[in-house]
User: Which sequence fits this backbone?
């Protein structure tokens, strides 16, 4: 599979379900702000609602980061609505649920399992230009963590704003002093 | 403080490292004095004191003196003795605005050695125009550079800030190993390093160029 980092999202237009309404979402809607495309295999399954609910619980924090969330499955927008009507977990979702029955998005992002017509659990973080800055793809049964995703969005934003000459600060209590090393080539 | 309380050799300096260091210290043109404030009941203080004494013993251009915190508060009021250990550099009795809070292990041995070289002379090359402008800075500017010893970018920001301090009387640049001071990590909300705090207010993340740092400092004066 090809590396997706820095690849720009290609043109698309799909139907979507959001807060009881149907709408259309295109490539342009993903620009001008950070976005997360959150693929999952299908509506009305067991692991999916827990993941989507976890995302819904942290949605406000993503919004504070200027990041919009788009869940994507290979179901239609009508199925999304039916799922929301049937499930309390899905009903509380405020973010946009994209419908990708033709597999346009899943194929574009390399997560479509053609023979099953379902998407792998792929998560893609896009910058305001619509370029992929981080992604992960899980097999069907492996769930994801919204808090960890939020941390990645924050890190991606930070690097974009400050360049990459920074390191995460991780200190362990009682850590030993690191042995010194000297590298002054070209500095004297 | 009686210097004999401190071992003259540091276990942090291997023979190979000592050899490399000796060749760098051989380039020092003038004298540099290292004042080191330590609490010898504390491991990082012992480590830094031994390292300073070891390095001082490797060049006739280097001298060192050790102080207990209460002594330092009286004799070295220019230093922040609340963050121990602290090692500061002096030239001809004058504090050069360069201090290290913590042990200069890991990558920070580079910044420590270059600070000695910049204070002693000839020092690292610097754009003459910028050097002049730095010398004209009037308003006191304090740069706290928070680092981790394992961060490969941090030493570069420390080196740059302390090179500025070596040329600008008004600038003080302090390396702070954030690992040793959790209260500061909390106070300044440090999640990434290097993080440079200017006059306890403005924050700069990552490594900048000297021109960028100069522009930033002048913009807030």
Assistant:
């Amino acid at each position: 599979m090809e590396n997706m980092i820095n690849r720009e999202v290609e043109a698309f237009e799909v139907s979507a379900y959001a807060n009881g309404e149907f709408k259309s979402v295109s490539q342009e809607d993903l620009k001008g702000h950070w976005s997360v495309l959150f693929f999952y295999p299908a509506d009305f399954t067991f692991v999916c609602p827990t993941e989507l609910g976890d995302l819904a619980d942290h949605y406000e924090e993503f919004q504070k980061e200027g990041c919009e969330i788009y869940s994507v499955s290979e179901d239609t927008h009508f199925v999304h609505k039916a799922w929301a009507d049937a499930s309390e977990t899905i009903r509380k979702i405020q973010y946009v649920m994209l419908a990708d029955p033709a597999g346009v998005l899943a194929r574009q992002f390399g997560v479509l399992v053609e023979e099953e017509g379902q998407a792998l659990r792929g998560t893609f973080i896009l910058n305001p230009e619509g370029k992929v800055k981080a992604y992960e793809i899980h097999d069907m049964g492996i769930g994801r963590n919204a808090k960890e995703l939020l941390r990645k969005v924050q890190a991606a934003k930070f690097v974009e704003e400050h360049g990459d000459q920074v390191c995460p600060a991780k200190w362990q209590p009682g850590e030993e002093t690191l042995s010194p090393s000297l590298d002054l080539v070209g500095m004297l | 403080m009686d210097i004999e309380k401190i071992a003259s050799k540091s276990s942090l300096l291997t023979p190979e490292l000592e050899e490399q260091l000796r060749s760098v210290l051989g380039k020092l043109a003038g004298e540099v004095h290292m004042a080191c404030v330590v609490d010898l009941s504390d491991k990082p203080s012992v480590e830094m004191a031994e390292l300073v004494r070891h390095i001082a013993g490797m060049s006739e251009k280097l001298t060192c003196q050790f102080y207990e915190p209460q002594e330092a508060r009286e004799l070295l009021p220019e230093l922040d003795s609340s963050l121990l250990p602290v090692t500061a550099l002096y030239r001809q009795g004058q504090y050069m605005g360069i201090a290290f809070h913590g042990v200069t292990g890991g990558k920070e041995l580079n910044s420590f050695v270059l600070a000695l070289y910049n204070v002693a002379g000839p020092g690292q090359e610097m754009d003459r125009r910028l050097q002049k402008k730095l010398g004209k800075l009037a308003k006191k500017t304090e740069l706290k550079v928070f680092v981790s010893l394992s961060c490969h970018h941090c030493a570069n920001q420390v080196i740059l800030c302390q090179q500025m301090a070596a040329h600008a009387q008004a600038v003080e640049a302090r390396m702070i190993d954030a690992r040793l001071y959790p209260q500061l990590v909390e106070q300044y909300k440090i999640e990434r390093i290097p993080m440079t705090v200017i006059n306890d207010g403005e924050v700069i993340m990552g490594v900048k160029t000297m021109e960028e740092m100069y522009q930033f400092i002048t913009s807030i004066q």
Summary: The domain at 35-162 of chain A is CATH 3.40.30.10 (Glutaredoxin). The radius of gyration of chain A is 19 Å. Helices of chain A lie at 47-57, 59-64, 77-86, 88-91, 104-108, 146-162.
